[in-house]
Recover the amino acids of this structure.
């Protein structure tokens, strides 16, 4: 056993010195290898953590959202039907929501307009909440008060005023007190005063958001007082979500209940698909690299060939040379793997994926600037290992074996030159 | 098909392993046909050189098989949110007919590849390649299984359709509705199963110790180590899981590898695999003990292999006992 | 004792360029003696040396080392015998560039996994007895021809072999250095080592140290 360890140590020692003796050649390989790992790792870290982020946000979202369908399309929800919903057994609460999109032609940007949810406080007086844990949250999320997604404390939303997201403020170069013009549904221009800018920890959600009062929202889009965009339904027993959802369809055949699970699944597959596509595209790069590695490993220089010949002549065995080459590959692979992964970690979590963010999220003028919460797992690293190190290692096995089976007497035969 | 990066990782790994093993097996056939140790002809020298390549490939494939077994379960666990009803790997593996067969083939192939390496190790100690025909015969047997596993794995991942409603560990490994093997095992009452487990463990360990000390009854130990492996897996489903999860109805063998249970599966399962491979190794080497060139070395290898298997089972038993003793779950009798 | 019977070595068998380097060589080489193989180039000296030294296997025929048949052993066993029994001195020093003299000398012992301190002590001792201990930490590129050859001799001795094999050792040495080399060979003989040299240098094969001269021509032993 001790012999075995000593043997490994000697051979690793020799391998390291042999790598250092061919700095230039090995450096090129290492740099390319690191780059490949870096690109793949960045992609994976990015998709995983954005997925994670999205699922954290969505876990706060209402259990069921009910939309009205008209000719198969999303239509305004009549308030009168809210009472029908409330009567369904198992429903705890039904709340209306008002939200929509506004396209700003000049900037080519799409804003999300939202009327802050209304709750009833202890005194029975309706008031808008001061901080919201999620766009679609109906309550103040007492279970998670320390990390609201956006806050607008100190600024009360009155008719004629709005509160805008960071992305909008940045793009328009707007400040508190400025007026922001909107073109209403009837063509008239309405101006709203910016009362506040959302400070946000997860700009992912609130970047393009505008909070607006109910009255302004209705007059801007011409929505009657009898209608809302959709309603959220809270369920008494979380296990009954699907039962309640099917009851809703039965009672209101023209409605579409969307459960939180549906949304989570959709997000999951969209991000998996995007991440997967990126990996597939980059596999071409991996393949090219593997061919390069094969070529590099099989194209032993005359010097290396002679060196292996000498080693075999002085008493190294084929498996000793294979072991040496194995360690050589391990040193290169692990160096490239870890430096690539660490660089990717810095790239994704500290620089906000500077290099290829747009490709993953889709281009948008109001592109959010945010720092993702670092999140990596063993499984990600294992996957990365499987699609980089293993193809590389396999590509070098045959060339390594060829090199290792050089005749030991070649050192004698080539002694003349 | 779900284009998840980890799925791609799995498929890449499986294709590579298959490629290597099939390539190795074709040379295995050549070796079976043309091998002649007495000859110094070039063909023989080339074949002897190829043996180095093949053992490197197989060692690599064996390592891959182990990692990919865990990666596979891991992937299934990760894909859980995509399927209605799936709560862990157990449910995801159930989304189509290929999940569980792939898993079983992975375990089988891991054991086969391990046995091949045991044979290879012993063969390399003999100066006349005493086991060469057996070794390459086994390789030719392994190759189709690896290929089949790969096909199954592709079929499993390609055939995956999100939103499929599946049943998960709650129903697959539930003692309440006893349909399917998993449920039947889960349905075994824990107390008798516990008695069986400890009796079998005691018997296996005693026989291992006896085999180690006296160098006799090695076949018995090899057989017992296989039976013990099956009993251990059944016990995990039947009662060990209950104590680890501390929930009297949760029988799932996959949740063991999740973070919630401090990844204890990554300790327990490799111990079991190590124990069964080295235990079967004892049995597979024993017939060659009279072989001239291995007369001196083989008994040592067999003893070493027995010791490894014995230690793995002992450690497994200790950890399981620790988990049961310090579990907050109290079984009502 | 090394015993070869009817040894043949064929290269590129069944090809148009097939040629037979050795054609039925039978010879016995005794212990503790200096045996010299001589003959014109292409006569099979190097091939014969490589078969004797367990570097390659004969196509046909048997080789016995101290009575044990070694001609059909697999490479890993041949290598094991080779590194414990034989020390090789080549025509060129064949040192690995970029490493120090000491590292080069220790290199053959790496796969054996001996303890480092012991190995190093052995290497220093070997270099010292050849008078180049002061060069131990020098890179091999800086050595003179004579020093390089002595470094390679120290390397051949690191595993304390009982048989020394030298292939045209004086081909690249001047007369003075060649005499110095023969002095080293004389020391080997007094230590009781078996020495086998292939050479067509008269300075070697006419030396008074030689116990037996074997002449080769066209892959066969003459006379």
């Amino acid at each position: 056993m001790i012999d075995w360890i000593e043997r490994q140590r000697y051979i690793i020692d020799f391998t390291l010195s042999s790598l250092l003796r061919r700095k230039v050649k090995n450096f090129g390989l290492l740099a390319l290898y690191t780059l490949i790992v870096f690109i793949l790792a960045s992609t994976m870290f990015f998709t995983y953590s954005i997925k994670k982020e999205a699922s954290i946000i969505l876990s706060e979202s209402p259990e069921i959202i009910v939309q009205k369908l008209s000719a198969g399309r999303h239509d305004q929800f009549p308030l009168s039907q809210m009472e029908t919903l409330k009567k369904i057994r198992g429903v705890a609460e039904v709340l209306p929501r008002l939200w929509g999109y506004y396209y700003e032609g000049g900037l080519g940007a799409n804003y999300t307009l939202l009327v802050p949810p209304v709750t009833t406080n202890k005194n029975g007086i309706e008031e808008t909440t001061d901080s919201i844990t999620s766009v679609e949250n109906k309550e103040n999320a007492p279970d998670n008060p320390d990390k609201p997604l956006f806050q607008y404390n100190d600024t009360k939303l009155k008719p004629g005023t709005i509160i805008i997201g960071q992305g909008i403020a940045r793009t328009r170069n707007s400040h508190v007190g400025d007026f922001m013009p909107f073109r209403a549904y009837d063509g008239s221009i309405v101006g709203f005063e910016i009362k506040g800018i959302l400070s946000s920890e997860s700009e992912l959600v609130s970047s393009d958001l505008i909070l607006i009062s109910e009255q302004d929202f209705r007059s801007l889009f011409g929505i009657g007082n009898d209608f809302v965009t959709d309603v959220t339904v809270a369920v008494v027993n979380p296990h009954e979500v699907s039962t309640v959802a099917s009851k809703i369809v039965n009672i209101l055949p023209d409605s579409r209940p969307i459960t939180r699970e549906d949304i989570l699944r959709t997000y999951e597959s969209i991000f998996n698909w995007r991440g997967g596509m990126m990996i597939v595209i980059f596999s071409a790069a991996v393949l090219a690299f593997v061919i390069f590695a094969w070529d590099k490993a099989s194209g032993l220089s005359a010097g290396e060939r002679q060196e292996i010949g000498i080693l075999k002549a002085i008493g190294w065995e084929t498996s000793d040379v294979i072991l040496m080459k194995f360690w050589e590959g391990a040193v290169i692979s692990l160096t490239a793997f870890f430096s690539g992964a660490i660089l990717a970690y810095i790239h994704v979590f500290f620089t906000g994926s500077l290099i290829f963010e747009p490709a993953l999220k889709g281009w948008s003028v109001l592109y959010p600037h945010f720092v993702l919460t670092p999140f990596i797992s063993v499984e990600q690293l294992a996957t990365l290992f499987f699609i980089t190190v293993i193809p590389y290692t396999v590509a070098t096995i045959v060339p390594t074996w060829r090199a290792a089976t050089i005749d030991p007497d070649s050192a004698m035969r080539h002694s003349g030159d | 098909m779900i284009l998840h990066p980890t799925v791609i990782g799995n498929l890449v790994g499986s294709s590579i392993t298959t490629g290597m093993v099939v390539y190795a097996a074709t040379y295995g056939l050549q070796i079976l046909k043309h091998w002649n140790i007495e000859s110094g002809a070039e063909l023989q020298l080339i074949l002897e050189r190829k043996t180095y390549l093949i053992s490197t490939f197989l060692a690599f494939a064996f390592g891959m098989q182990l990692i990919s077994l865990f990666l596979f379960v891991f992937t299934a666990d990760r894909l859980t949110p995509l399927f209605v009803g799936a709560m862990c790997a157990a449910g995801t593996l159930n989304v189509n007919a290929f999940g569980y067969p792939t898993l079983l083939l992975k375990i089988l192939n891991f054991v086969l590849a391990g046995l091949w390496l045991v044979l290879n190790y012993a063969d390399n100690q003999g100066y006349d390649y005493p086991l060469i025909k057996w070794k390459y015969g086994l390789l030719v047997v392994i190759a189709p299984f690896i290929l089949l596993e790969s096909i199954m794995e592709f079929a499993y991942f390609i055939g995956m359709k999100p939103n499929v409603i599946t049943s998960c560990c709650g129903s697959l490994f539930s003692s309440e509705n006893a349909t399917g093997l998993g449920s039947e095992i889960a349905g075994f009452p824990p107390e008798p199963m516990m008695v069986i487990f400890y009796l079998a463990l005691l018997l296996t360990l005693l026989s291992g110790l006896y085999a180690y000390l006296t160098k006799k009854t090695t076949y018995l130990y090899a057989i017992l180590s296989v039976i013990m492996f099956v009993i251990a897996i059944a016990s995990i489903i039947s009662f060990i899981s209950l104590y680890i999860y501390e929930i009297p109805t949760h029988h799932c063998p996959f949740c063991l590898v999740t973070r919630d249970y401090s990844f204890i599966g990554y300790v327990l399962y490799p111990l079991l695999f190590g124990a069964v491979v080295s235990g079967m190794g004892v049995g597979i080497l024993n017939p060659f003990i009279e072989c001239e060139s291995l007369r001196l070395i083989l008994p040592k290898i067999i003893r070493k292999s027995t010791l490894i298997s014995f230690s793995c089972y002992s450690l497994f038993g200790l950890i399981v006992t620790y988990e049961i003793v310090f579990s907050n779950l109290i079984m009502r009798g | 004792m090394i015993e070869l019977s009817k040894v043949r070595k064929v290269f590129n068998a069944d090809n148009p360029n097939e040629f037979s380097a050795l054609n039925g060589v039978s010879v016995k080489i005794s212990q503790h003696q200096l045996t010299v193989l001589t003959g014109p180039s292409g006569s099979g000296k190097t091939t014969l040396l490589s078969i004797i030294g367990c570097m390659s296997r004969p196509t046909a025929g048997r080789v016995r080392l101290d009575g044990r048949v070694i001609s059909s052993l697999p490479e890993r066993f041949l290598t094991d015998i080779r590194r414990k029994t034989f020390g090789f001195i080549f025509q060129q020093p064949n040192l690995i560039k970029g490493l120090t003299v000491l590292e080069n000398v220790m290199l053959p012992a790496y796969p054996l996994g001996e303890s480092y301190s012991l190995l190093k002590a052995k290497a220093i001792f070997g270099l010292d007895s050849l008078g180049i201990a002061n060069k131990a930490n020098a890179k091999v590129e800086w050595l003179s021809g004579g020093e390089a050859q002595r470094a390679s001799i120290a390397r051949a001795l690191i595993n304390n072999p009982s048989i020394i094999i030298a292939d045209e050792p004086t081909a690249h040495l001047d007369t003075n250095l060649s005499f110095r080399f023969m002095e080293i060979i004389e020391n080997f003989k007094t230590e009781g080592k078996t020495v086998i040299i292939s050479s067509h240098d008269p300075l070697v094969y006419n030396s008074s140290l030689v116990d037996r001269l074997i002449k080769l021509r066209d892959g066969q032993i003459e006379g």
